[in-house]
Each structure stands twice: as structure tokens, then as C-alpha cells.
Amino acid sequence: ARSFVDWTADGHGIAYLSHDGDRYYYMDLEEHELAHILVNSVAEPYADWEENVNRQMRGVGRHRFTFSLVPHAGDWREAGLPALSERLRTPVLQTRPRGRGDLPMAGSLLAVAPETVALSACYTDGDRVLVRVYDATGDGGRTAITLPFAVSAAERVDLNGEPMDGPEVHIEERTVALELRPWEIVTVAVRA
Prior knowledge:
With 192 residues, the chain is mainly beta. It contains 2 helices and 13 strands. The strands form 4 sheets. Strands 6-9-12-11 form a 4-stranded antiparallel beta sheet, with no helix packed on it.
């Protein structure tokens, strides 16, 4: 668990969500304790050990951590904790657009549905756009990726961008649809 942990019983629960991300948790069942590892640092086991280890790796200095305690009805899936956690960890940043002209009041570069599917990467690779999504709740099922351009070709690829076997990817104008197995991570190479 990197972004949240949750306790649920009798139809309600409470979640602990880290806004800072990239921290870890562990549970000691014997002591009935849940611990949040805030700083993952290196201790010096003996003198002159790794003289090039920087201050950040040593955990020296002031640290600030932000988290939320979220009471909720139902389990973590019903509470939408993966999506809430992502919104807290990666808030929307507003930037000033370049150039002149009228812009629409709202717009989207990319949309992923349903909400149980998360976007983990989107980048260009030559004349392709690579989009990586994953099933964040273990539900699996059909997902749709909507892009700002008409799609001419799309295929599943591995982490090196090479074609990969798997269920077919369907194209309909600006949308690519595919089936995800529970917890599956898929990278799709898309061409305009």
C-alpha cells in the first residue's frame, strides 16, 4: 500500500490517505499496529561508509507530511479510495495558456473510464502516443481511453513499446476500448 490503507467492518470504515505518496505502510498483526513509514533513509553502519550518500538519503533535515483520515460507508471500492487517493496525491495544476485566442471553458487531453481504471503514463514515442492504464480495484472489465484526436491504429505493447499478444483493442473515432483483467496493467500504442 503506497497511497492509502483502509480498515472496514460492519459496512463502514476509515482510510488513511497519504498526500505525499511514495511512502509505505506495514502491519504488525501480533502488536495490532499499523505503521506508516515516513522516511526511508540510510543509516551509516560504520565510519567512512558511502561518503557520497547525500542528505536526502540520510533523512537529515526538516520533513513535512500531509495525510487525510477519511471515514466512509461500505468498503474501499465503494468509497472510491484509489481515485480519491490519486486526486490528493496529484492535484490539478493550472497553467497560463500560450498564445492568443479563445479557449473552451472546459476540455480534456485524455479521459479514462470507468473510474476504477487509473492512468499511470502518457507519452510520445516517435509518431505514437503510449498510454498506460491499470485496474485499480481488481474488478477488471471494459475500459475506454478517449484522446483529443482521431485514432487510426492502436495495439497493446510491452514496456519496451514492442507489440504484444492479448485481447483485441477496438477503435471508434477518438476512443480506444479494451478489456482489462483484474489488477492488470496495459500499455497501448496509439497513432493519430
